[in-house]
Amino acid sequence: MRYVSTRGATPPMPFQDAVLTGLAPDGGLLVPQTLPDFRGRLAAWRDLSFVELAVAVLQAFADDMPRETLERIAAEAYATFDHPEVTPLVEVGPLHVLELFHGPTLAFKDIALQLLGRLFEHVTAARGERLNVLCATSGDTGSAAIAGVKGRANMGIFVLYPDGRTSPLQALQMTTVADANVHCLAIDGSFDDCQRIVKAIFNDLDFKARHCLGAANSVNWARVLAQAVYYIHAALRFDAPVSFSVPTGNFGNILAGYLARRMGAPIDKLVLGTNANDILARFFHTGEYRLGTVQRTISPSMDIQVASNFERFVHYHLGGDAVALRTFMSTFADCGAAKLDGGAPADEGILAVAIDEAETKATMANLHSRHGYIADPHSAVGIAAAHRFPACRPVVCLAAAHPAKFPDTVDAAVGRAAARHPALDALVGKPQRKTRLAPDVAAVKDFIAAHAG
Fold first, then answer.
1. Is 150 assigned a catalytic role?
2. What gap in Å lies between CA 251 and CA 346, rounded to an integer?
3. 6, 91, 122, 141: which sits with the fewest CB atoms below 10 Å from its CB?
């Protein structure tokens, strides 16, 4: 299996190189040259555990790694989760909820980043290299990436997050980590500012090489691959094709489901739920990808206008036409808007809707009062979106984060102090380590150069 750039100007590379490369040198995102067809394997996969299925899926994409190495990495990664099923599926009234928050930082990002941290460690150790992970986060990616990398030999991590625009507990999960190889950069701006800075730094190929930079954001193909596993695993628990409802801001989570569907997983529809930052919902209704102003909401991890994984979707929708993709992406970069020639992509199995704060709060309240279930505001967006499409049944709603990460919002919605977790309670009052910086590429480069090791 070899990996190529969506923009067509990067030579093919094997899996381990793709893991370390992150963003392609030509500014595109890495994708496999071909996607495997898993339909002939699904029957044999139905009885596999989550860890066993993860190994089976990984082996199809990482043919430059021994199976026993993949088995060890997967076993170690998912041993950090506090539920034996890793991603348990629970019934909540007429819906099914796939709980993805049982990892060490209580968010779905752990599923990929506990694996990715160990992949980084394996590859760098085998090559005798150093790696400095650079990522932007709207909330959960940062803490999950830190948890996957902290204390590991020959590795450092630099996390950019929008100062004051994550939940307080999300910030504490990052800034209270004491390991010397962890650097938290509080940027005076939005997540889009953080993401813009990270992409600009990765596009400076000399700087990237000089400081051994790699990506933990979902621009890293291994992140998306790891997330595709839980779609396949959940879909195989049903006797007929199932739909998934996904809260999304950066398009990484739903992209994993989209790719699982393309690879033959028994998935009917994918319901895409955004908050007021509805650039993706508008795109799937109109075919136009038009930048808006970032709005602050009660689901802050989705307060995003420029979705970093959207380029991979455009790549597949355009049939891998790198010229057409470059035209689309450059038009968007220059004009703040770009439109598909064929209009809205109606043939991709994606149904999209924007959910406002009132409906999000009402969904949290109704889940608690009618079913005794407590959901965080991001998961509530996906659950509310599922209710908009009653024909999509059975439907699995992805629960992205533990409600205790957003206690003020959740408690206000359900009418009592319900959102608590001992791991988060223990963070309050601990010393914090962070550096505040302006949303300036040069300032972040200077910090990295001084601390990269």
1. no
2. 17
3. 91
